[in-house]
Specification:
By secondary structure, the protein is of the alpha+beta class. The protein has one domain. The chain has nine helices and seven strands; from the N terminus they run ααββααββαααββααβ. The strands form three sheets. A three-stranded mixed beta sheet has the order 5-6-7. The chain has a two-stranded antiparallel sheet with strand order 1-2. A two-stranded antiparallel ribbon has the order 3-4. A hairpin with a 2-residue loop joins β3 and β4. The chain starts with a helix and ends in an 8-residue tail after the last strand.
């Protein structure tokens, strides 16, 4: 019986690691393109300024040393965002809204459960991580982190660089941006995040004719037009990939991005 339970749990863990498909939640695919309203993300920027440090190729968050003032600022920022109706803003403001909200909610989630070695430990006994748990309510609708990433951001904007913008509080993840996203800096931040990740060893590691890629490129290969599309895309940054015939391996470090 013990081995059956272990086997069942291993199957459950495997299935939960499988990446969700982009599945549009049509309600959120609406905007007011005539709107010139600008969302204030300065509180989030302040939290980042005080707690995010750069060490090597990683951006590390000081969960252990965050002040009560910054915790309150974070909660206040999230509350302010969730009380707004994102559908009343234009698409550029919406994109920044959703990315910043996702990242702020993730940081809050870690802080509320700190200390923890990995975000994957927060999903309960039969879950791999907290991504399917209701985490916020906007316009009277409950949302999970997976809803924001896979039912709003990916299907509406259809930009592969979204994977570099949302952060899962892990060392294997593309870094939490040191700047809050805004409608005016989004393109620059996406380009920067893309460049940093694909040129880091956690994104692409080429050694002795072998290629190890981030598991992101396996989980979300569909967003890069399949495995061959992934290689074609990455060859823009690493021309030497043209000479490597062996299939890549994949890896991901779920350790907390703690500093």
């Amino acid at each position: 019986m013990k081995y059956l339970i272990i086997f069942f749990c291993s199957l459950l863990s495997f299935s939960t690691v499988a990446a969700p498909k982009a599945d549009l939640w049509a309600y959120w695919n609406s905007s007011n393109e005539k709107s010139t309203q600008v969302i204030d993300h300065s509180a989030w920027q302040g939290v980042l300024n005080h707690n995010l440090t750069v060490k090597g190729q990683n951006h590390l968050f000081g969960y252990a040393n965050i002040t009560a003032q910054d915790k309150q600022a974070l909660k206040g920022y999230i509350t302010t965002l969730t009380k707004q109706d994102p559908l009343q803003f234009n698409k550029k403001e919406q994109f920044a809204y959703w990315v910043n909200l996702y990242n702020a909610l993730t940081v809050e989630l870690i802080l509320d459960n700190y200390p923890t070695k990995s975000i994957t430990k927060l999903g309960g006994v039969f879950s791999f991580g907290p991504w399917d748990k209701d985490i916020t309510t906007i316009n009277g609708k409950k949302l999970t982190l997976n809803d924001i990433e896979h039912r709003i951001l990916r299907p509406i904007w259809k930009d592969k660089r979204i994977h570099y913008a949302v952060n899962c509080a892990s060392l294997g993840c593309p870094n939490l941006a040191s700047q809050a996203f805004t409608s005016s800096n989004t393109e620059a931040l996406l380009k920067q995040a893309e460049s940093e990740f694909v040129n880091s060893t956690k994104g692409v590691n080429i050694q002795n004719g072998m290629v190890q890629l981030s598991s992101i490129f396996e989980w979300y290969a569909v967003d890069f037009d399949g495995e061959s599309g992934v290689i074609k895309y990455l060859t823009q940054f690493h021309p030497e990939l043209k000479q490597i015939k062996k299939k890549p391996s994949y890896d991901y470090n779920w350790a907390l991005n703690e500093g």
